[in-house]
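pls read this protein:
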Amino acid sequence: MAAVLVALTLAYLVLAWPYLLGTWAAVRFGAGPHSTVRSLVGWVLEIPYLVCLPITWIASSRQKNKHEPLTAALNWAGLGTPAWILVCGLTGLTALIFGSNTTSHVDADPPTVVVPDFVGQTTRVLNLAMMQTHLQANVNDVVFAGSGWELDPADYVVTGISPKPGSRIASGSTITISCASKESLAFYQKPMPDLRGRDSSDINFDGVAPTDVTYQPDRGQPYGTIIDQAPQPGAALVLGQRIALTESG
């Protein structure tokens, strides 16, 4: 049984060594282990070899019978097997180089860039940063949901970036940039003020998220006087948090 296996292995190597050599060389030159280029190079070497083998055997038989005209032709084709393999090898190498270059363009990972960190800077830097990093930006006003972009970009400050700065992403990707106006940051970074008893028309709500206002009859207060509020005075605020006011009306 062992002898049979050895014989089959040797027969396989004798018949398939050009294919094995070609595929090995293709992978060494950068073709993928399961790519079409790898198989192509192997078969470019293997097929002529398989064709030449029977020709060589027939030529050798004809030589013994001295059939000169046919023998000469077969000798030229069959006994020139090394030359055939050389020609096929050059052909395979050419295909390999071409295929490797093609594979490198198709299979190569796209270039990556580092997500820049400009949190705390004004949105004026966005255009230059996007050009330098070849990224696209989806900009969101976290307080007004984009409705405040009539203001100059210098009035807006970047508050967050996703994916996080420093991470690597494919060139040309879109990153999400959160921002808020300087007026919004000035309001929300302080505790909630006490607005009760004040006339709503006298309060500057610039930078504050849209306020929910309800009216409640109160004969003891002039019209428009704030009689209740949420959040309560002194509460810590979250950027973009809505303010609810109850006014006399």
